[in-house]
Amino acid sequence: MIAIAKRTEAYTETEIDDEVVLMKLDSGEFFSITGSGRAIWALIDGQRDRAALIAALVAEFDGDAAEIAADVDDFLAQLVDEGLLAAG
Amino acid sequence: MDPTAAQQTMTRETRLRLGPVPPDPDFADMAEQTWRLLGDRFMLRAAGDHRFHYRRGHGVTVERGEGAIVADEELWLNGSVYAAIACINGLLPIHASAVAHRGRVYAFTGPSGAGKSTLVTALGGHGLPMFCDDTLVLDLEGGAGDGQVACLPGHKRLKLTPEALALTGAVAQERVCADLDKFYAVPPAGDVGAVLPLAALVFLEEGGEEAFLPIAGAERIARLQDDHYTAQLFLAARGLDRGALFAHLAALARRIPMARFVRPRDTARFASGVALAAEYVKSCDSSD
Fold first, then answer.
1. DSSP 3-state of B263
2. Which residue of A33, B81, B159, B186 has the fewest C-beta atoms within 10 A of its own C-beta?
């Protein structure tokens, strides 16, 4: 398993309305996390790997595992693109 | 700091004397038409050797050296100098004109030329008194403890272009200064001199159909960051880095309801836009 971890040194984080807003410290750019992304982001703790994230979401939302897995993959890919995850 | 204390601070700190500015090597190399803010000190050099110096606790010194344009002095004092003093004393000036309704402030912001002054003047025709023109000073610590942000009443006279005078029907007084095509005017529904909480901050935008649209989430933080005039002074006064500024703006954004007011810049549609804005202000109050 490869634990998924946030690059906490790369951003600062706050919540406003129904969004988690990250500001990248190197560029000042904002990255806004809404909807299912919020739940995934909250579960990324540096311990869980992809499978554990999906299992936790399926348990939390009683959802379809395949759909949730697709959401997780999309979201993680986005975070990697934005430089917000540590290289696993 | 309670609101009255903030007002007293501004009155005390903006006291003025004429004479040579104190010698200070940190301000010696400044070009004309520039300002510099260092900790609790501020210097603005206008045309020629026209200098404005402020130091916390010492008030403002104005030196009318060679090339000074005395007629412009009030504009500098009420503009950048006032904003810098506000920032150094823990207040937050933003670029906005505002009206008051039932004890709360509705502020309209946008870049120069967006129509802030014109709109608040026209709202006077709907019975809404002016709260401030061009600069709104926020006292983040001066709220009633309910999370609301306190606003200090305006310190500037209303200034309008000839087009704005024609649109709003306001009566022109004297010209503001020789090289500026603006005139002082009296707000039609008068003005308000009390410290009041901020009800909403509305961003003026050009668009097709008149509409008020909510602003939520990250965009609220980004909008506050876009007020560059304020952001520069505020950053200089607080010495904040990027992360700290973000945290500060986020905290502020959570406390200020925001909306966009989209309307066409078409004089034929001006009155209906103003009517919609008046309705918005009055409906905010009734929905509480």
1. strand
2. B186
**CA nearest A20: which of A79, A60, A69?**
A79
* Span A15-54, pLDDT tens digits: 998 899 999 999 889 999 998 999 999 999 999 999 999 9
d(CA B99, CA B110): 15
Q: What is the phi-psi region of residue B175: left when phi exceeds 0, alpha when psi lies from -120 to 50, beta otherwise?
A: beta
Domains along the sequence of chain B with CATH: 3-88 (no CATH), 92-286 (3.40.50)
ipTM of the complex: 0.78
pLDDT tens per residue across span B171-218: 999 998 887 889 999 998 989 989 999 999 999 999 989 999 999 999
* Domain positions in chain A: 8-81
Look up tokens 């403002």; give the residue: B60
* Chain segment B221-241, per-residue pLDDT in tens: 988 887 766 667 777 777 778
Q: Do A11 and A84 meet the contact criterion of CB atoms below 8 Å apart?
A: yes
CB B41 within 8 A of CB B30: no
Among A14, A25, A32, select the one facing B250 at the smallest CB separation.
Answer: A14
B216 interfacial to chain A (CB closer than 8 Å): yes
Q: How many C-beta atoms lie closer than 10 Å to residue A72's C-beta?
A: 21
- Looking at the structure, give the CATH architecture of the domain made up of residues A8-81: Orthogonal Bundle (1.10)
Chain A residues in contact with B221 (beta carbon < 8 A):
14, 16, 21, 30
